[in-house]
Amino acid sequence: MTAFTRRDFLKTSLIGGVAATCMGSLNAFASTEKQESYSSKVALTAGDNRADMAFRALKPFSQEISRAIGNRRVILKPNNVNINVQLASTHVDTLEGILEFLKSIGKSDNVVIAESAANGPTFDGYKNFGYFRIAEKYKVKLVDLDQEPFDVVHVFDEKDFRPHAVRISHLMLDPGSFIVSVARMKTHDRVFATLSLKNIVFGSPVKDPGFTFSASRKKGTVSDKPIMHGSGFRGINYNLYSMSRQLHPHLAVIDGFEGMEGNGPNDGTPVDHRVCVAGLDWLATDRVGLELMGIDYANVGYINFCNDTGLGMADLSKIQILGESIDNHRKSYKLSDNFKDQLVWKNAVSQNISDSAGSKFKLSYT
What we know:
Elements: H1 6-27, H2 32-36, E1 40-46, H3 50-58, H4 62-69, E2 73-78, H5 92-104, E3 111-115, H6 122-128, H7 131-138, E4 141-144, E5 150-157, E6 162-169, H8 170-173, E7 177-188, E8 192-194, H9 196-203, H10 225-228, H11 233-243, E9 251-261, E10 269-279, H12 282-292, H13 301-308, E11 319-323, H14 339-342, E12 349-354, E13 360-365
């Protein structure tokens, strides 16, 4: 990747433009009915270079992305769930491909890379994964969300059915931010897969400076990230769904060059996949990600909830795939050991609750 120059990017861009023109000519022969059946577009690229794959995945959306950004600040949100494990975290080359794309459309002047790393100091992760190099190269600011202002929202907890306060980065909620989720294809031990939405919803809660899961944790420091998980498989799926209305990516990029299978998002093993997915409809992009990983869409609760309530498109027949064919790149990722337990969100439960007069009544929910 380090030998990949801007000239290579521009050459790729030119080739991509010619290919897009040819594709447009071919599409002219398609029936009007078929064209109108698509509700969303998702680009799928494959190759041997992360930066190039991300760049090419974004090119078909150049005009739409430029209009959507307008005068807003661009936030590139990596998924650094573990500041010491590269397989669990966003690769610097994917960020470079996106930054080069933003430069090519004239939208690189107001860009920040922002994260609240899950298990330790955010800037330690930036250093470990080589982010300082691209920050200097593209003149972008590296931001630790834990050091920034926050807003307070309330989320559901399945243990007590009560709202719980969570500190959420103001930068991620600000209407002046254009949020790009730079995710990585990984299986997950609570919601089957980590894709673009989860990266935003669970990366935006902040922690106190000095917090870490190790013995070196500063006394009295806490992280609000566990609160967002809702104390169970039902709670986490519901909170992902409910928060997605106000906290979601405006542009989704999912790096599947090297995915993670098994006990993700931290302890899985690598999958040599060599794909990248991108789209302005985060739900459609995540749906394609699931398909590429061989994960049954019907098993992922929050994706179903979001589709059922019209927050995006998850019907594969209504998603136009630009570039590569899903069928040529689908793999069967090994799931987390507890994947059967995760399916509990599908089951209705009931419990007896006493009202203020001591009378019993039954509450049911799914």
